[in-house]
Design a protein that fits this description.
Elements (H helix, E strand, L loop, with lengths): L2 H7 L11 H12 L17 E6 L5 H15 L6 H18 L4 E8 L2 E8 L19 H8 L2 E6 L4 E8 L13
Antiparallel strand pairs: 1-2, 2-3, 3-5, 4-5
Helix pairs in contact: 1-2, 3-4, 4-5
Length: 181
């Protein structure tokens, strides 16, 4: 069914009557101005290179996010990245859950030679770099991102913000056939 037909189903039209021009326009505009997919649902259907999971706004979700990320990375045969992904996902999800009261969503994507992880939340405030004491228990998340991620950043969205990091996908080792040295 076409997107316009789905939108027209939401407009009340008497049985058998053709919708008016106004009803068709209203259906098209309501589809275009529809709110973004809520964070308590996956961003889209999972594909071979894209996965998304909503996370409950409770700290137990940090361990779930780590497990989901590792399982997905292993499924994509990127085992070499598992430890780094686990640590960085833990940092981003913990930060999101500590600084927002609403839902959180984690997205993983493989695009070309990069693995990208995004954590979306409902707080629009970006990350703040802090000076921390040597014995402080927290506040080092951005330094960890700086050290381990190839790139990272934050962007505001219509529902809050997205904090993301990218890692280079390991290149498979080239194997030479026997006798081809």
């Amino acid at each position: 069914m076409a997107a316009q037909d789905v939108a027209l189903d939401k407009v009340s039209v008497s049985e058998g009557a053709r919708p008016s021009w106004f009803a068709r326009q209203l259906a098209l505009w309501s589809q275009a101005t529809q709110p973004l997919r809520p964070l308590n649902a996956p961003r889209a259907r999972a594909t071979a290179q894209d996965a998304s999971w909503p996370l409950a706004p409770e700290l137990i979700s940090v361990s779930r996010a780590r497990r989901l990320a590792i399982e997905q990375v292993v499924e994509w045969r990127l085992d070499e990245l598992a430890d780094t992904v686990e640590l960085l996902v833990s940092e981003l999800v913990t930060n999101a859950l500590c600084h927002t009261r609403g839902p959180v969503r984690m997205n993983l994507q493989v695009r070309g030679a990069r693995l990208r992880c995004e954590v979306e939340d409902t707080n629009s405030d970006g990350p703040v770099r802090r000076s921390v004491c040597d014995d402080a228990e927290g506040g080092r998340g951005m330094e960890i991102l700086d050290l381990l991620a190839e790139a990272w950043g934050s962007s505001r969205t219509a529902t809050g913000k997205t904090l993301w990091f990218e890692l280079p996908v390991p290149v498979p080792a080239q194997t030479c056939p026997p006798g081809d040295l």
